Amino acid sequence: MLTKVIRWKPEFNHQDNQLFVERLCMHAWLNLRHFIDLTTDETDYGQLDSISQRVLEWVCARYSPKSNLFVQSIVLDSKIASPATIHKCLATLERTGFLSFEVDPEDARRRIVSPTAKASKTLDALGRRVAKWARQQRA
Fold first, then answer.
1. 108 DSSP assignment
2. Rounded to a whole number, what is the distance in angstroms from the first to the last CA of the chain?
């Protein structure tokens, strides 16, 4: 991870101060990006392409055992990618064990989508790592 600390010097003029802020933000972004890459690469989540990751996150954020989530809803409402790409991602997520599908008993043309225990466990683990990292950044 990037550990270089940039210190603010009062003798900076406005232009130098602007450069300082830009570099500080860039370093913060690079540090965060490096952490995300390291963290995701250690899990099955890191083996997914970025669009499949976003689809999985979208599904998990909206899933409720009390109401069904359908493939059609994901394709129309997620606005992550084209319908063909969403379908491809859903197939990848099913194949990798992150999502499960079942036929809707009320309409056999529709499929109900549910995150698996693997998806919940993976995202929970990633969330714990992020929370730990955030605490370390404040210290």
1. T
2. 16
Helix (H, G, I), strand (E, B) or coil at 10: coil
Cross-strand partners of 69: 113
CA distances from 112 to 68, 86, 93, 103, 116 (A): 6, 15, 14, 6, 13
Burial of 122 (0-12, 13-18, 19+ CB in 10 A): buried
What is the mean pLDDT of each successive set of 10 residues along the chain, which is 139 residues long? 46 56 67 81 89 96 95 96 97 98 96 97 90 80
- Cβ atoms of 8 and 53 closer than 8 Å: no
- Say if residues 99 and 113 touch (Cβ distance below 8 Å): yes
Distance in angstroms (rounded) separating the CA atoms of residues 63 and 59: 6
User: Residue 6's pLDDT is what?
Assistant: 46
CB 26 within 8 A of CB 86: no
Q: Check residue 4 and give its pLDDT.
A: 47
